[in-house]
Amino acid sequence: MFRGSMVAIVTPMHGDGALDFEALARLVEFHIENGTDAIIAVGTTGESATLDYDEHIAVIRKVVGCVKGRIPVIAGTGANSTREALHLTQHAMEAGVDACLLVTPYYNKPTQEGLYQHFKLIADGVAIPQILYNVPGRTACDMQPETVERLADIPNIVGIKEASGSVERIQELVRRLGDRMDVYSGDDGIAAEAILNGAKGTISVTANVAPRTMHEMCAAALAGDRVQTETLNDRLAGLHKALFLESNPIPVKWAVAQLNLIPSGIRLPLTPLSESLQPAVRAAMRQAGVID
User: Fold this and answer.
1) Pick the catalytic residue: 106, 116, 133, 184?
2) 161 flagged as catalytic
3) Exposed, middle or buried: residue 165 (CB in 10 Å: 0-12, 13-18, 19+)?
4) Do residues 6 and 201 make contact, with C-beta atoms less than 8 angstroms apart?
5) 1 has a pLDDT exceeding 90
6) Which member of 62, 106, 116, 161 is catalytic?
7) Which pLDDT does position 267 carry in this prediction?
8) What is the CA angle 204-126-131, rounded to 5?
9) What is the arithmetic mean of pLDDT over 134-163?
């Protein structure tokens, strides 16, 4: 249903942490002009953990209003409370998004059966396409391929963002799911290989900084052109690493601010990028060709 380079867009903030909706509108245009294939609003990279409920919905509405149907908008609506995730998904659908992205419940460490029941209830309750999101490194919860395969029988669960860092896991999911559910990479470092092995795209942090090259790399991989894919990915390799030198989205917000697209605001408990790491991020931006 969705393909290519899908940016997990940062949420612009002023220095005091207040949301900057003007900068958000500029970011949306920047991505559309540079070929981004879809925008994910208020995911982990969008600081969903520190936005309150009203802010969460306001950012989604703003992105939908700015995009105006030109590319798909996917809203992050996951939570570790099933009731909260259900309500967020319902409100995101009412705001006009094309799909929702739901992370596995974090901290409370549900069983595989609990995960199945959680996602089934939300899918049954809100008639919108939904993408599962497995990121065990941040949630302490790893949704197993067998559970994903069970969920593939639910018609409006259309994909999974797999961020376990394993190409082998991507391959297993592609094999198990066939054409019932699309698989997306959630790790920029393996996104090229994931797509060459059957994933339909990537939900990307790197695309915040180098959207045109990420789009071109994903397009080459979807076309099966390994040589071109690897050439473009080599250009991005430094960013794939540098944007995780501190917890996401600390480095990526600093990098996007260097492009003069957003102010430097970020909310506690996250703090601005350490000065000692700034040269490495800047060097990766040069390697990617986004700054001189």
Assistant:
1) 133
2) yes
3) middle
4) yes
5) no
6) 161
7) 97
8) 20
9) 97
How many CA atoms, within 13 angstroms, populate the side-chain half-sphere of residue 106?
Answer: 14
Residue 255 neighbours by CB distance under 10 Å: 29
Distance, first Cα to last Cα, the chain: 37
**Contact yes or no for 68/102 (Cβ under 8 A):** no
pTM for this entry: 0.97
Question: Would you mind telling me the total number of residues written for the chain in this entry?
Answer: 292
Tokens of 188: 């920029």
Q: What is the pLDDT of residue 32?
A: 98
Token readout for 82 is 């099933």
- pLDDT > 90? residue 176: yes
Q: What are phi and psi of 157, to 5 degrees?
A: -90, 105
What does the block give as tokens for 143?
């949704």
b (16+ CB within 10 A) / e for 211-246: bbbbbbbbbbbbeeeeeebbebbebbbbbbbbbbbb
Angle between helices 21-33 and 53-67 (to 10 degrees): 40
Question: Which long-range contacts link 264-273 to residues 24+ away (Cβ below 8 Å)?
Answer: 264/15, 265/12, 265/13, 265/14, 265/15, 265/16, 265/17, 265/18, 265/20, 266/13, 266/17, 266/47, 267/13, 267/17, 267/47, 267/50, 268/17, 268/50, 269/50, 270/47, 270/50, 273/245, 273/246
CATH number of 4-225: 3.20.20.70
Q: Report the sign of the C-alpha dihedral through residues 80, 15, 247, 172, in that order.
A: positive
127 by Cβ neighbours in 10 Å (0-12 / 13-18 / 19+) ranks as exposed
